[in-house]
Design brief:
Layout: E1 16-22, H1 25-37, H2 42-51, H3 57-67, H4 71-80, E2 84-89, H5 100-120, E3 125-127, E4 129-130, H6 136-148, E5 155-157, H7 172-181, E6 185-187, H8 194-197, H9 200-203, H10 211-224, H11 228-231, E7 237-239, H12 246-263, H13 276-282, E8 284-287, H14 294-304, E9 309-310, H15 321-328, H16 334-349
Parallel strand pairs: 1-2, 2-3, 4-5, 5-6, 6-7, 7-8, 8-9
Helix pairs in contact: 1-2, 6-7
């Protein structure tokens, strides 16, 4: 231990964790029913077939802590020096559910439950809206309710919805509402769809180790290359886990995107108003959830700008208080560190 972890800003900044997961028993039960009935896709079976039933110490801890949005979570925040947490319904949200009415009900109930927790701990918890993209028009109404009635600060979409992505026409109302309501859109990973997963489960690479980043960065690139941010130039896309690796690859992504446009070989790709560097520095925000790694964070700051990179712990999936100390000792300027831990979150989530 190099220093005590305290809340209250004793190091010159508050620590705001911006990608913290929670769950409801109703959500768990619906997902596990699909797994047991053999109706869930392979990614969900791999993820929740394990996390939902394994008796191991790690999975038991995660299930218990996902369901808690009370004293256990506050205690963990205090012990790791986290002042505030932005909470979102854990992956896959309700997006793996086939019954649209059930998906809507679970999402709405979760938003109401999260609102009650935020009212109990108004200085510690902040909410992101859960929606059911299976019903885009209903989701638009829930976005309005989430912001205007519940006072939430963003929306989390757990990447694909039964293999479909937000750049597809049926989801345009959701993108439009996020832009109109000035709600940041956090795209969080879930298991890869069956059309993409291949043998990743057999290789042991389908989840957070690798597959999540493959699938979610693919989703983000679909949005970046199809004119979404030309239509909605104020829309802010949030990506976790080191921006799912995109900053490291940005030069090549931009170069090859331009080459693809020149070739005319992809009918779906049309010229954009800007290059990918512009959108990454004006429309994409990143967190380091699950990646307390100095070189990656400094690369994000260099590529995206110091106003666009935020701290996240990824509780309870990755709860290691010593990682907070690593971030306190990160080799960046004091001004950058305050932005990273506190003021960027306050700005973009409007805390």
């Amino acid at each position: 231990m190099t220093h005590a972890l305290k809340t209250g800003g004793d190091r010159g900044y508050l620590r705001i964790a911006t990608e913290e997961a929670w769950a409801t028993q109703e959500q768990f039960d619906a997902i596990m029913r699909l797994v047991k009935e053999g109706r869930a896709d392979e990614g969900t079976v791999s993820l929740w077939g394990f996390y939902g039933s394994s008796p191991s110490e790690r999975t038991t801890f995660i299930r218990e802590r996902l369901l808690d949005i009370g004293e256990l979570r506050i205690q963990a925040m205090d012990e790791s020096g986290i002042d505030k947490a932005v909470l979102a319904l854990t992956s896959p949200g309700v997006q793996s559910i086939f019954d649209v009415e059930e998906a809507r009900r679970i999402a709405r109930n979760s938003n109401d439950k999260l609102k009650a927790a935020c009212e109990r701990y108004p200085d510690r918890f902040y909410g992101m809206i859960a929606v059911a993209p299976q019903d885009a028009e209903w989701s638009v109404g829930e976005l309005h309710r989430g912001k205007e009635e519940l006072g939430f600060h963003g929306v989390q979409i757990n990447s694909h919805t039964h293999g479909h992505y937000l750049d597809e026409p049926q989801f345009e109302p959701i993108l439009r509402a996020c832009a109109d309501l000035d709600l940041p859109l956090y795209i969080h990973p879930q298991g890869l769809p069956d059309a993409m997963i291949g043998d990743m489960v057999g290789a042991g690479l389908d989840g957070a180790i690798f597959g999540f980043a493959v699938e979610t960065s693919y989703h983000a690139m679909r949005l970046l290359t199809t004119g979404v941010f030309d239509r909605y130039p104020n829309l802010q896309l949030m990506l976790g886990h080191g921006c799912e690796g995109l900053p490291y690859m940005l030069y090549r992504l931009d170069y090859m995107h331009k080459a693809g446009l020149r070739s005319g070989r992809y009918p779906r790709l049309k010229p954009l108003q800007h290059d990918l560097f512009h959108y990454m520095r004006n429309n994409v925000l990143a967190t380091n959830s699950g990646l307390p790694f100095g070189p990656a964070i400094k690369t994000m700051i260099e590529v995206m700008g110091e106003d666009r990179v935020m701290y996240a712990m990824d509780y309870p999936y990755q709860y290691v208080p010593d990682e907070v100390r690593l971030m306190d000792d990160l080799d960046i300027t004091a001004a950058q560190k305050k932005k990273f831990f506190q003021t960027n979150a306050e700005r973009w989530f409007k805390l």
